Structures are given as structure tokens and as C-alpha cells.
Amino acid sequence: MRKVREILRLKFECKRSRAEIAAAACVGESTVSGYLARAERAGLTWEVAREMTEAEIESRLFRDVGRNEPPARVPIDFSWVT
């Protein structure tokens, strides 16, 4: 999942800079800027986001929710491998 909720919390509750948020969330500064811009365009404030789940926040900001989730993998057939 994306770390949108944490980025919003760090920005509005902790008053951190974009560089500090990027370092804390282990994402790029451009990602932080993009998420904050999306939240602003959607009218999503921290007061509203605080009560939402990460999935609910994503659904407000992104068209393809969960797109960054890794694909399900087929289990390895060890009898065939050996």
C-alpha cells in the first residue's frame, strides 16, 4: 500500500518538511509532493483523513486502488524442481 496516511500525518500534525517526510516514509520527495497535491485537489484534510483507513484515503486520491500491490505468485512446485 501507499503511505499516504502517514505522509498526511507528518505534514499536517507534525509540521514536517517534504524532505523530512520523504526520509521518514522512505519515499522520494516527488512522491510526497504528488500525494500532497492529490490530497489538496481532492479537498482531503488531515482532520478528515485521520478517521479514514489507508484504503479509504487511496480510493479518494487514486483511480487504481491497490495498483502497487505485488501480484499473487503461483506456489513453487518443489516436486518438479528437484
What's this entry about, in short?
The chain is mostly helical and 82 residues long.
| Count of beta strands | 0
Q: List the uncertain runs.
A: none
Mean pLDDT figure:
87
| Helix-strand topology string | HHHHHH
Class per helix and strand makeup: mainly alpha
Radius of gyration: 17 Å
Report the sheet with the most strands, covering strand number, pairing sense and barrel closure: none
Total helix count?
6
- The rough form would be described as elongated
What fraction of the residues are assigned to beta strands by DSSP? under 5%
The percentage helix is 55-70%
| CA-CA gap between termini | 35 Å
Would you mind describing this structure in some detail?
This protein is mainly alpha-helical and 82 residues long. 57% of the residues lie in helices and 0% in strands. It is built from 6 helices and no strands. The radius of gyration is 17 Å and the shape is elongated.
Which features does this protein show?
82 residues; 57% helix; mainly alpha; single chain
List the helices and strands and how they pair.
Blueprint: H1 4-12, H2 18-25, H3 29-42, H4 46-49, H5 54-61, H6 78-81
Helix pairs in contact: 1-2, 2-3
